[in-house]
Amino acid sequence: MKVGNKHNYWLVKEDVIDISRGSKSSVTISVEDNKQLTLDPSRAAFIIIDMQNFFCSPVLGRSKEALSLSPAITGAVDSCRKIGMSIAWVNWGNRLDTANLPPSLLYAFKGGKEKQPGIGELLPDNLGASLVKDSWSADVIEELKGSIQPEDWWIDKYRVSGFPGTILDQTLRANGINTLFFAGVNTDQCVMGTIMDAAFLGYDCILLRDCTATTSPSYALEATFYNMKAIGGFITSSSNLEPVTNS
Predict the structure, then answer these.
(1) How many CB atoms lie within 10 A of CB 81?
(2) Which of 48, 209, 232, 241 has its CA 20 to 30 A from that of 196?
(3) Domain C-terminal end among 103, 137, 171
């Protein structure tokens, strides 16, 4: 079954889904529900979202679950590089004056509490302003810095999703990217928000289950995994990125 048009299409044959759009250079990986996904890695990117000190550091009392993702994300980055995928780090990097942020977003980050530091406000213990570009809290966690390479794309974001007001979509389209793999925190918030916008913009979306976590209740996490299928996306794990079947 061919889904799409003559330029932009998937080929679906039983449990094998070819999203390479006729590419002569493709790999096949396993995804959940006993399906195989064939894609062109040169037109794919791995998006790592919000693995920053603000969300992950125990200094701020964050759960160890976010930090525990580091080995899987590191392995996924290495596997993606080996098969020729691009890597993008998408992180909060706000203006100090928060001039571009709406009240709803600022209120959400303060949790409705006047004394809780919000975006652009000072964190305790001289840790600087919260989630401001080039600040400690906006920096990627130390455990992942060894995975960053000069050719990687660095995207500052200003909303839950990595798309509004950023150069993410421009960068992906300028490099011929049509397939996106996702990792990071929080799964049901910034990760899923970015995935939803990506799907609405026409990108193929794959979520790495073992490379994402959330502080939300378990039902929120399960709803995210459920909704991946509702938007035509896929779920897999970092271990399925290598080895791969070349075609």
Answers:
(1) 17
(2) 241
(3) 137
Query: How many domains in the chain?
Result: 2
Longest Cα separation, the chain: 59
Given a cut of 80, whether residue 154 has pLDDT beyond it is yes
The answer to whether the beta carbons of residues 144 and 152 sit under 8 Å apart is no
Q: What is the pLDDT of residue 247?
A: 52
Classified as helix, coil or strand, 242 is: coil
pLDDT class of 115 with cuts at 50, 70, 90: confident
What gap in Å lies between CA 154 and CA 88, rounded to an integer?
6
Q: Which residue has the higher pLDDT, 111 or 40?
A: 40
Contact yes or no for 40/23 (Cβ under 8 A): yes
Mean pLDDT of 124-142: 97
DSSP-based three-state secondary structure for 140 = strand
Question: Which residue range is the domain that position 53 belongs to?
Answer: 42-93+138-235
CA distance 88 to 2: 30
Query: Token pair for residue 28?
Result: 């096949």
Structural domain ending residue among the three candidates 137, 171, 195: 137
* Residue 246 pLDDT exceeds 70: no
- Residue 56, classified by CB atoms within 10 Å of its CB into exposed (0-12), middle (13-18) or buried (19+), is buried
Residue 155: inside a domain: yes
Task: Name the nearest CA neighbour of 211 among 35, 29, 75, 84.
Answer: 75
Main-chain phi, psi angles of 28, to 5 degrees? -120, 130
Q: For residues 79 and 156, state if they share a domain.
A: yes
pLDDT band with cut points at 50, 70 and 90 for residue 13: very high
Q: What is the mean pLDDT of residues 72-78?
A: 98
Task: State the helix-helix crossing angle for 218-230 and 192-200, rounded to 10 degrees.
Answer: 10
